[in-house]
Design a protein that fits this description.
- The relative contact order is 0.06.
- Helix 2 packs antiparallel against helix 3.
- The protein folds into 3 domains: about 100 residues, Beta-Lactamase, CATH 3.30.450; about 70 residues; about 90 residues, Histidine kinase-like ATPase, C-terminal domain (Heat Shock Protein 90, 2-Layer Sandwich).
- It is an alpha+beta fold and about 280 residues long.
Length: about 280
């Protein structure tokens, strides 16, 4: 049968596939015109469909050219077993192909997402640097204007508002740059020893005006002894001020916001003790 192409609607295989059942044909040339040119003559052939999902994958086809040899149930059983094995192999191949295709799609989506994130990070970083540039001369000009307006309270008051807004813009720009650095793993943390009370003081100073606008009572509860921490004071100030900003945002006007610091008394800690010494900052 090598080199022959037989249409499925004019072949024993087509019948087996259509009926989805094994077929035994005697002298098939008498029934199927496309087999007329096949030599030597076919005396008998056995076909078993290869089971598939919604339809058979195809058919296994064996033939005999010897009138003295005939196919029986054992031949059909063996061929059916081969067809089942072929089905399993084809299903595995198809599943692997589907899995490979899904993996390629997932990898393409991952690369596209990574590229989009990189573009966004680059945009944020560029925007932050572009905004930081004009803020420096504006800040310097405001400082000079304050010196020139020493005798004018009204002008000084207006300049103070401008100063606060510039400080807010600086903070927003820093947040933009920090967001980009965090995503790219370039955020630097410079830890030094310092007083936690100073960090709290700076954080409260950053939000006091917003708290006053909403008539909040801002209460701070510090231990009676100084608490020294090993941290990046600037970033820790950002953390605390962000917590306070959220508290101001979600506390009803006239409400009470309590910032509480809990830390062990340094006089009760062994000089060379290895136990963890935690300071806990709570905002209610």
């Amino acid at each position: 049968m090598a080199g022959h192409s037989i249409p499925s609607d004019d072949s024993p295989a087509g019948v087996a596939l259509q009926l989805d059942a094994p077929q035994l044909s005697m002298f098939p040339k008498r029934q199927f015109a496309y087999l007329m040119g096949v030599e030597p003559d076919i005396t008998e052939e056995l076909l078993v469909p290869i089971p598939g999902g919604s339809r058979p994958w195809g058919a296994l086809w064996v033939m005999s050219h010897d009138e003295g040899r005939h196919f029986d149930n054992e031949h059909r059983r063996i061929l059916a077993s081969l067809a089942s094995f072929t089905c399993a192999a084809l299903n595995i191949r198809q599943a692997k192909a589907d899995a490979d295709a899904r993996a390629e799609e997932a990898e393409a989506a991952r690369r596209a997402l990574a590229a989009a994130e990189a573009h966004k990070d680059n945009f944020i970083a560029t925007l932050g640097h572009e905004l930081r540039g004009p803020l420096a001369p504006v800040d310097s000009a405001l400082a000079a204007a304050q010196q020139l307006a020493t005798g004018s309270p009204a002008v000084l008051s207006a300049l103070a508002v401008a100063n606060r807004q510039v400080a807010q813009l600086k903070r927003i720009v820093s947040d933009l740059l920090d967001a980009s650095r965090i995503r790219t793993g370039k955020l630097s943390v410079r830890c030094t020893y310092g007083l936690l009370g100073d960090v709290i003081k700076d954080a409260i100073g950053a939000v006091r005006e917003d708290a006053g606008k909403r008539e909040h009572q801002l209460l701070v509860q510090l231990p009676p002894y100084p608490v020294t921490v090993f941290a990046d004071a600037g970033r820790l100030t950002q953390v605390v001020s962000n917590l306070l900003t959220n508290a101001i945002k979600y506390t009803p006007p006239g409400g009470e916001i309590i910032l509480r610091i809990e830390a062990p008394d340094p006089t009760t800690i062994a000089e060379h003790g290895s136990a963890r010494r935690d300071a806990v900052i709570t905002v209610c």
